[in-house]
């Protein structure tokens, strides 16, 4: 028997069993789950109703992730799946699904931040940069007055969440997948921040205590 999405086999809201008056229909079909895993990119196309195409991602290793507070998006490597509200088995097998909490490589975001604000993203990095500046004898090319003014304006808003700062120091950021890898063939999402980040950090901590 094929996978069906019909609800005719379900009972009515009164509890009555519905009469079987027809067989399954093509438009009610369902398909096998993609179970997208971490690995070198492998995507299959699936012909769907109306001649449309779905992109079934079987393996993915990177995606585009947005850092909302800084209004920047970077393509970065997915490192691991760390939490899934629906099933722990999806964490163990590193299965990529919508709303899965994952760890991504922080390097592209760190590079952008340090180029944009012309200052290190972590306190440890700031100390290292200060030490390097005193040691280096090479003359750096001075910025024009206009460029310096623009940088000074940016630096006023260069504040970063302490929780994010610790993640940048470790080189890994927590993010969530907002696309559907089994339908669109992409694992795109956004970096967790603020209350949402605090919520998932609590979930991860309680999960570790249980095991």
Structural description of this entry:
The protein is α+β, with helices and mostly antiparallel strands and 211 residues long. Helix content is 33%, strand content 23%. The protein is built from 7 helices and 8 strands, in the order βββββαβααααβαβα. The protein has helices at residues 89-92, 107-117, 123-135, 145-155, 162-170, 181-184, 194-210, and strands spanning 37-38, 42-47, 53-60, 62-67, 72-83, 101-105, 172-177, 189-191. The protein has a 5-stranded mixed beta barrel. The protein is elongated. The mean pLDDT is 87.
Number of helices: 7
Rounded mean pLDDT is 87
The level of helicity is 25-40%
Low-confidence runs of at least 5 consecutive residues? none
Taking all Cα atoms into account, the compactness measure Rg is 24 Å
Spell out the helices and strands N to C.
Answer: EEEEEHEHHHHEHEH
Q: State the major sheet.
A: 5 strands, mixed, barrel
Structural class category: alpha+beta
Percentage beta strand: 15-25%
Q: Nutshell version of this structure?
A:
The protein is of the alpha+beta class and 211 residues long. Helices cover 33% and strands 23% of the residues.
Q: Which features would summarize this protein structure in a list?
A:
23% strand, alpha+beta, 211 residues, 8 strands, 5-stranded mixed β-barrel, 3-stranded mixed beta sheet
